Amino acid sequence: MLVAISTIGVEEKWVVKYLNNDHNHELLDDKEVQFLPAYRSIPIVDQSRIMLLSKAGCSISLIMRVLELEKEICTGNLPFLEKDIRNFIQSQSGIGKESDASDVLKLCKSLKDIDDAFKYEFTIDESNKLEHIIWAFGDSIRAYEAFGDVVVFDTTYRINRYDMPLGIWVGVDNHRNTILFGCVLLRDEKISSFTWALKTFLAFVEGKYPKTILTDQDPALKEAIAIKYLPFRWRLKSSEATTWSGAKQSSEAQKGSERLKEFSSSKMFRGLQEFRSYLLVMSHLEDEDVQKLNYEGLSEANH
To answer: Where are the domains of the chain?
Structure first.
C-alpha cells in the first residue's frame, strides 16, 4: 500500500495511491492464527483452575500439561501459551510475591544475626522489587575451603509458584558425601544474572577459584563464565565442562581433552548412566577429585 498527502480543493488529505492486494507471504492457517497475541486469551473457567494449581506448587509447564489432559486435547492446542499463564499468575499474585520476598530478606538478616559467617546478597530492580538473592551458610563456606577444588553448578526450574531458576553449588568430601556450598535464586537465566551469581559467590569464598567446575549446556551460563571481565583462569574447557586452572596442561591432560571433545560432539546426555560415562572421560583433568563425584548422589541431594 502506498499512501501520500494530496491536495483536494483547499485541504490536504492522506490518499491511498496504490494498493497491492496480493500477499507477499504465506498466510497463517486456522491452527496458527490462535497463537497471535490478538487471539490468545485465558478463559475465565481456566483462570481459577490455573491459580489453584499454582498455589498447589505446580510449575507453568505442569499446569499446561494438566489443562491439556483435562480437556483431552493435543499438546499446543490450548488458546494460550505458557508465557500467558506466567503473566496471568504474576498479575494475580504480585502482592503475595512482594510479601514473600520481604520475608526471605528478614529471614536472611536473622540468620546473619545468629551466625556472622552466614553470607547473603541480593539485588533490587528498577521497581524496587527483589531481583536476585544468593546465600551461603558459614559451614558451607568452610566446607568449600576444604573441598572446593571440584564443583558442580546446576540451575534448574523447580516446582514452585515463582518458576525462578534455582542455582546450587555442590561438591563432595573425602567420604563422597554431597556438600552444599551455596544457593541462588535468579529472576531469569540471562548472561548478566549468571555473571552476578558467579562473581558474588566468588566473593563469598574470598576469591578461591575451583580447579574444575561442571555445568550444564546453558549458553547464557557458558557466556557468563567466559565473559571478558572475569579473571583469565575462568575459561571454557568444553561444551559441557568448564575448568579454571592457571597451570599448564600436561600431555596426559591434552589427550584427555581431545577424548572429551570427541565425546561431547558425538552425543547428548540422556540419563545418569551417560553422565557417569562423561565423568570417566573427565578423568584426564589434573585434579583427580573429579572422579569422586557421584552425580546420582548430587541429583538426589538437589531434589
So the answer is: 2-94, 117-302
